[in-house]
Amino acid sequence: MVVDVVRESAGAGRIVLWEESARDGAQAKTLMTPGFRVELAREMGRMFGADGPRHVVFAAGFPAVCGEEFEAVRRVAAEAEGAVSVAAVCRGARRDLEQAVASVRGSRHARVMVVVPASEAMAQVMVHRTAREALQAGVDLVKHARDLDDGVAVDICLADASRADHALMAHYAQAMTDAGAGVIVLADTVGAQLPFACGEMFRRVRAGCGAGGGAEAGLVAGGGAGAGRAAGGDAEVGLAGGGDAEVGFAAGGEGPAGRAGGGTGRGTPAGRAAGGIEVVLASHLHNDLGLGLANTLEALAAGVRVVSSSWLGIAERAGMVATEQLLFLLARHGDELLGGGGVQPGVGGAPTRDGRGPATGPEAGLWWTEPDLTRLPGIARRVAEETGVPLTVTTPIVGAGVGSISTGTPFVHPTLFQPFDPEEVLGIEPRVVLTHLASARVVTAVAGRLGHTLDAGQNRAAMAWVKERAYRTGRAVVEDTAFADYLAGLKASINRTDPNSSTGGLR
Description:
Blueprint (H helix, E strand, L loop, with lengths): L4 H7 L4 E4 L14 H13 L5 H4 E6 L5 H13 L5 E7 L2 H11 L6 E7 L2 H8 L3 H18 L4 E7 L6 H14 L4 E5 L6 H17 L58 E2 L7 E7 L6 H10 L4 E4 L13 H16 L37 H12 L16 E2 L2 H5 L9 H5 L4 E2 L7 H10 L6 H18 L6 H18 L10
Parallel strand pairs: 1-2, 1-9, 2-3, 3-4, 4-5, 5-6, 6-8, 8-9, 10-11
Antiparallel strand pairs: 7-8
């Protein structure tokens, strides 16, 4: 039997990044070459060493687009095998699914993700069916995928989950999982969800998977396993009312219901069904209101451990949470954000890699292998070069402003003005930048970097020149080359004034 390392990791409380820059990023009008997709997948895997496939799902593309896209996905599956878990993405159509499976077949830890509409409005537009009919078709597609190749894991993305019925999604998330799905992705497709609503969605769907799904899903409270048949539903799915307290919204519950009466507020990675297979939820949250990161953190707080992101936030419209930001926050502040991170004590987790039983409690941590954050800036630069999406001065973690100093007090006391040491954490060497805000110390430092020592008078003259140039050109930053030319001119002027002095204090 092939081990689903993504389900294993999520069940053990470990973080899995679902990387979307090559796939959803294409909807941001970018196109990564097949070779770069391979490079990016390998680089992401290297951040986690041998545990790359357990921590990274790399969505390589959408094979049904055209022959060239199929071949690009196929190349990533072949050449990035073992570095990450490679995924192909497809619509909820049998032909598309068959193409997707064929594009990754034979690659270790290969996956396909099938997009299925979850809301009534999206179901009508995408497949001209009701939401219930579309979701049942998703169950059938899972079974078909497993029949095609049981060595390829199949995941379902519930499109427009943020506007869908929670109980209905819970019922079919369980049905899809029982049919063989690995991960059920809840998508805020339009990026309009607010953080509290996002957290509630994940908690309620998980609770529904474990507590019987509710009458809205067509299940009878208290029915035995296999008893409750919804309209168009799967007879095998019937869930008994009153599932594990770990997953329900029971008053005083201890589990992932979070924010229920007396609950802990901290989730566990999977919803546990009475008599069913654990449902592993994942997030795919867009950033149209600027809330992609906040919503992803809400999902994580609700117990989700498989989270979608994209380098530089590249994705459809306004994008989604940026991989570099999310990974940095979880690596540096995971315990603060998630209260210990791993599976909660007393809740069953997936076996550890050596088979010694479940990883539980805060000591389990969020990682099989801690990510190497020093790789973040280099990967971000390569993505920017490939896609044309710039790294700006306001880009967090990897942008042009990280590690730069341009004014007096931060120059003297840099640790007071930085949340972390960029050189120690990211390998970014601090840079002193000359701007119209430059102090005497900053001017002296930049001149020294260029090989010149200034006396007090020359420093004042140089500082005045820097400010005058910035305002005259309308550009804050004075480039080193321009300042070097000024200093060379200043030296020549001194030599003309005093032929007996080579520098007059300028050396």
